Amino acid sequence: MRKHATSRSRGFTIVESLIAGVILALFAAALAGTTAQSSRAALRAQDHRKAAEWLDTVFNRIDMIGPARLASEGPVQGALDDRFNWSLSLDNDALYPDLYLVSVVISYTGADGRPARVEGHTQIHDPVGRRLVVARWEDL
């Protein structure tokens, strides 16, 4: 007599389904972590870009007014908006008194709550009488 071969179901067992579910959950958790990290990096980059724009604005104002006048009259620091502040350092060269080393720091609180800053440095030649005296920081 011949034995009949038992037929096995070709479906998935519950153990295989559970293992697949765990693997899927691990991938989903890794993807969620990566997405959150990418979002934080995008916010930091956006803050850094805004700080760089403010840095450019401050340098333009300094160039319009002149570092010599700012050194004597100010301002040398201030608020740009509710999150961004600026500070200015001016040094002139003893050998070339009309040449100023201008350093600007834009400080801000990042989207993650941490303090951050962007710095810029340049040299500006500011001979006496080169700029209009009527330009004021508040008006620019």
Uncertain runs are: none
Percent helix range:
40-55%
Shape: rod-shaped
CATH class: Mainly Beta
Class based on secondary structure composition and strand pairing: alpha+beta
DSSP summary: helix tally: 2
Question: How many domains make up the 3D coordinates?
Answer: 1
Q: Can you say what the CATH homologous superfamily is?
A: S-adenosyl-L-methionine-dependent methyltransferases
CATH topology: N-terminal domain of TfIIb
Textual characterization of the structure:
- With 140 residues, the protein is of the alpha+beta class.
- It has one domain: Single Sheet (N-terminal domain of TfIIb), CATH 2.20.25.110.
- It is built from two helices and four strands; from the N terminus they run ααββββ.
- Strands 1-2-3-4 form a four-stranded antiparallel sheet.
- The chain is rod-shaped and about 100 Å long.
- The protein starts with 13 loop residues before the first helix and ends in a 15-residue tail after the last strand.
- The mean pLDDT is 86.
Which descriptors would you attach to this protein?
42% helix, alpha+beta, rod-shaped, 2 helices, 4-stranded antiparallel sheet, N-terminal domain of TfIIb, 140 residues, single chain, 4 strands
Question: What's a concise summary of this model?
Answer:
The chain has 140 residues and is an alpha+beta fold. Helices cover 42% and strands 24% of the residues. It has a single domain, classed as Single Sheet (N-terminal domain of TfIIb).
